[in-house]
Amino acid sequence: MNTIIIDDEKRARVTLQLLLKEYCPNITIVADCENLPEGIKAIRKHKPTIVFLDIEMPGHSGLELLDFFDENEIDFSIIFTTAYNQYAIQAFKFSAIDYLLKPINPTQLVEAIKRLEKNIQKIENLQALKENILKENITKIAVPSGSSLIFIDTTKISYIKGEGAYSEVFCNNGTKHLVSRNLKNFEDILCVDNRFLRVHKSYIVNLEQVVSFNKSDGGSLTLEDKNQIPVSPEKSQILLEKIKIIKR
């Protein structure tokens, strides 16, 4: 598989080249570029299978890559190399985009290559990542749905119900969205916010929508939209502490 490395730090490019040569002999490095414009030219010229892309670069962020290609031109997979904070990492997970934290671990590099060999990266996943990672506050999330993106105002989310590999997002205006992400993905990106809590193996709730908590029969929540949400016994105390914070 042909690959291109785009990173403004020469040491990072050299290190990744050495790791690929030692641990991924099936990878051929066809170009390494120190900025996004050079990388775009190299992608158009070499038609790589994989692009290793740094995000924080002078002039252009790696997230701007999509701005230079039409959807039908994205026939390569991207592995982001990043030193981003924990919130941004949750955005990567939620968008189903692979990433490697610097300094790059050889085992994680090999695993990322194996995952790409099995999975086809979708353009809407990249778009969702760009939308989510640029937001300092979790006021909206961009979720892939079919061949499009749905933008959901998190303040309007009432609860999320997990159904295997899919989740249903229920909003307080009566709308709901079926999203091809499991509940753990939503937990990772939303539950860093005190407003949201996974109260059950199948449910995440916006605590601002809670009207009452019934401790009988294992525990349940009543929401403003009258829906009843079950609460796992081990989540009861955490729930009460979270509600105190939200209601202050």
From TrEMBL:
The modification 4-aspartylphosphate is found at D54. Pfam families: LytTR, Response_reg. Residues 109-136 form a coiled coil. Keywords: Coiled coil, Phosphoprotein. The keyword Coiled coil applies. Residues 141-245 form the HTH LytTR-type domain. PANTHER family: STAGE 0 SPORULATION PROTEIN A HOMOLOG, TRANSCRIPTIONAL REGULATOR-RELATED. One of its GO terms (molecular function) is phosphorelay response regulator activity. Residues 2-117 form the Response regulatory domain. This is DNA-binding response regulator. PROSITE patterns: HTH_LYTTR, RESPONSE_REGULATORY. SUPFAM superfamilies: CheY-like.
